[in-house]
Amino acid sequence: MYYIRKRLEISASHYLKLSYDSKCSELHGHNWIIHVYCRARELNHDGMVCDFTTIKELIQDKIDHTCINNVLPFNPTAENMARWIVDTIPECYRADVQESEGNLAWYEED
Ligand SMILES: [Zn+2]
Hints:
4-stranded antiparallel β-sheet, Tetrahydropterin Synthase, Chain A, binds zinc ion, about 35% strand, alpha+beta, about 20% helix
């Protein structure tokens, strides 16, 4: 099995729709650190698992310097964003979404 990992830094804003009172419901920003993990049993015809640039285009270029709520059709928690990344990139099996030094969520396929 071949593995790659792509690191992305994304500056953006969001707000969360929550069932309880939280300052996270107000518009605020993060500098997200995202790790995208991909794998393939066989390399493609270019000798890659997938192109690092494709990952950047599908994820960073879509949400960097946006209000993520205006771009993605779900409540943009770190957990939901991690799931979206795995669902967006066919070769991706895990995504780590770090909102701050202390707060990290990841989604990984079984
Ligand atoms: Zn936040």
